[in-house]
Design brief:
This protein is α/β, with parallel strands linked by helices. It has helices at 33-40, 83-86, 102-119, 129-132, 146-151, 169-175, 187-199, 209-221, and strands spanning 3-5, 11-13, 22-27, 51-53, 59-61, 67-69, 87-92, 126-128. Strand 4 and strand 5 form a beta hairpin. Residues 227-231 have low confidence and may be disordered.
Length: 231
């Protein structure tokens, strides 16, 4: 795998001696990979990621993995509130309204395989930006193929038919990592939106039995609490 270098000045040390134990996947929401590269390397923009993958499968390294890139912003995953210090960020060149190219997905899988091996990152800790920032972010969006990554052991996928009896929806979702923003007036709506965007992008309407079963299954098989040793 060939990785091109385009160093971004937008980075710093990981805080508190943190090591990456998560990967956050984004889309660029820009018209071209070139435009995204320019923005991610512009000091005035104050944003970056560790990698950018274009539609043809070309990969650019913008920030060394040991450094803290500025891709996640405000948000939370489980007990992690400084996601930038604990994650590696991957941007995919995509406007967000069309499928991801096969070559791009192939390159992402190869890149993820190396990252997860280097840092011992579990599949349950490969997440989307929307997972950790409900309502604020929607990337990598409804066209991203999470099930494909799960089949390759690079993500997770729920099995609602095998779920234990659901408990409280928000409690189950929180155990799986999903939290509403602190100032959110409707936490259940925020968490439901994020969970559906990831696992049921075509679903609509109020919380239903399938949503509850998904949250229960994730909480049971993939609890985000690091002490559990499973996520």
């Amino acid at each position: 795998m060939t990785i091109l270098s385009r160093p971004s000045p937008n980075h710093g040390p990981r805080r508190g001696g943190a090591r990456p134990d998560m990967v956050v996947i984004h889309y660029t929401a820009m018209e071209s990979a070139g435009a995204a590269l320019d923005r991610l390397c512009d000091p005035a923009a104050e944003v970056s990621a560790h990698y950018l993958i274009c539609e043809t499968g070309a990969i650019w390294r913008l920030v060394d993995e040991e450094q803290r890139a500025w891709h996640a912003g405000a948000g939370r995953w489980g007990d992690v509130t400084d996601v930038n210090s604990r994650s590696i960020g991957i941007e995919l060149a995509n406007r967000g309204d069309h499928p991801f190219a096969a070559a791009q997905m192939d390159a992402l899988e190869e890149l993820l395989t190396g990252i997860t091996a280097r840092w011992s990152i579990r599949p349950a800790r490969i997440i989307g930006h929307s997972d950790m920032a409900p309502l604020r972010k929607s990337d990598p969006g409804p066209r991203f193929d999470w099930r494909r990554l799960a089949r390759r052991g690079l993500s997770i996928w729920p099995d609602p038919d095998a779920a234990p009896p659901p408990g409280d929806f928000l409690a189950d979702a929180a155990r799986a990592g999903f939290h509403a923003p602190a100032d959110c007036p409707d936490p259940a709506f925020a968490v439901l939106t994020a969970l559906r965007l990831r696992f049921r992008p075509q679903a609509s309407g109020p919380l239903d039995a399938t949503d509850r079963a998904i949250a229960a299954d994730l909480a049971h098989r993939f609890p985000v609490d690091r002490a559990s040793g499973t996520a």
